[in-house]
């Protein structure tokens, strides 16, 4: 078959080609290869046909595009138009271009654009991280010889050789295996190392149960194997994940959508308002074109909340910094606010709810059962029976056997890890260390584990002796290697297999006959362990007089020592964290790659209801309607693959839920990308998961999620506060300008009708109020503490906007009260002094005072005192100081205002008192109106 024909043979979605269901001979036939491998010429041709064995890298992000995107907004367009109009005024007869207004507007836009660019720029490294995970080299058979090639040169049909410690370079079908185990936790979520064999499997076996397949980006833990490559690059399982991530669109948060919609509405409103005012001026007042233009520019500046994007971004940034202090690193700022609306958490098991480290949790020997405390590789656990600490001496022979019959080893103190090797064997070393068992030995011979034998035997030298005394000594004291005076055979494996090779059992320090009754009791203990989803191993030993005897003779007549049961235990504090989330109205669901019994067992310990657990196969076979119904009841999903997680997530989102998805493996990346909030693990998480997520838990602690959600709720409250604050101010300013010009033309025609440049407030004054006076206090609102009891309330509905009906009514009423009291002050000042500048200055000072006091009126609804936020106190003080600087320094010429005498401040104070009274009255009326509606 030619290279093109070979390409056709695997072109139809290699990930779904069911290689695991075919015999090795059939697989070789399908990829047009053989046990002799490929020739160098054929490999080169296939490399041209299939391309390099690597994960396709996403297109690089254009910095220019990101920067220009900051200005694609209706509000920005309006302000640019206002700046151009300020300059265009100079083209009218007898008028001068307003360079100051135009320069200020453009400078503000540029500053906002730069800030948004810095915050939004984030390199999309998900696909790149997948690519970097690839194995750098691989050992393959080319031209009949073993050669080492770069992993990118591996092609379908290559015969590859794997040994413990190797990274798997591509997806391959195992054709020969000698004790091979692989760590697939990052791909499948399976916490235990997976034993591999060459036997065909059922065609519908899920990914985590395909024991005759090895996958790109997993690693061989121990043993050896020969495999034939069936898929490379983007055709691998990891490549499929990369493809899903490419297809996943960046999720826009509800708040982002609302801010965009708000900006559009404000934009249309401004344009409509300008058109209305222009029509009124031209039709009713015979205003000049210059007057119409100036009022239009002023209205645009008054209506557009220039500081809103910057304040929103900075508030989110402040919130994300507080979250970092609590070990939650936010990678996408808008997600900070989204956390407050999360009502469902879909969490992975391995490494998130559990330690991702196999741990011996139960042991049985001589008819007694013991619980083993401690998790992971910490050796400070103890052995307990019920509530009391038990003496571990009866367990020592079994623990020594587990430590000697073991290929794992302790890492040097200088390493980042404690142990190297298969997680199961590491767990046995740790359990022995907890009992202080000295497992030093000199290995004489190994009869390796295979999937057919399901057991491993190690012959170790030491002071054993011969006969029954030798058995007891060997079993009790082990092989120290002190003088090589004896050899002990240590066996571990599946309990049934180990028992089949035993004729005695250790009981009370003596090897006694393994009767049918004793055998039945041991098997019952094994079933009890397995019923709790423990992975169970049996242990046996005997003294050996001839280490060179055949395997069958070495493994005959063993003394059964006991059982050890292990699992990946829950992380400390996780059950409490899950309970806390539920008390806060947040549903928690587990989705794991582990088998259903293991998932149920862990689920029970953590606090899930495992009844009705669904498997990935059941998720895949369900219709959309069936799955949407099932996800509302099911709390445990087992044997799920990446596409299953995405389906579960999609069903929850279709039901209206705001979903946070947690995970740490490569297999979690597509779901993390599609979730409303993707949360990855910072310690155990893969680079792929972290880059695909919105938030990284630096301590891998599920409890941190609850703290992050509390912060998110507090941030939402703060956003609502300053949106209320800014928009109520802008509403008041718009009404003041709009109504003021119309009334001024009627009440003071000699000022407004005959002087087209006459305005209630100039654009420069409004820019100062919007960006400086409003900016500092609004920003300080972002540092407000969370309200007491914030987690006692259920999550807000996903469709609840920041600007709800009550808030919109409040903004409107504030605008009206500001207009009534502010214009009363303005026209009184104009009437009493005849000075437009004095009247403008009075109104200018009044608006500043009203708006800073308005902050505390808003905060009072959240039971927050002014002293609870020192930053806000400082911001208000700075605002008032800057206002005095503008009024009483030469800057007043730039702003077109004058220094106010003391009696003028009395007028401002009177207007302010009137504002407070009317505001209190309107607020109570609104409260009653909305209470009646509810």
Automatic annotation (TrEMBL):
NCBIfam families: ATPase_P-type. Keywords: ATP-binding, Membrane, Nucleotide-binding, Translocase, Transmembrane, Transmembrane helix. Residues 12-23 have a biased composition (Basic and acidic residues). It is found in: Membrane. This is Cation-transporting P-type ATPase. Pfam families: Cation_ATPase (PF13246), Cation_ATPase_C (PF00689), Cation_ATPase_N (PF00690), E1-E2_ATPase (PF00122). Its main location: membrane. Residues 18-91 form the Cation-transporting P-type ATPase N-terminal domain.
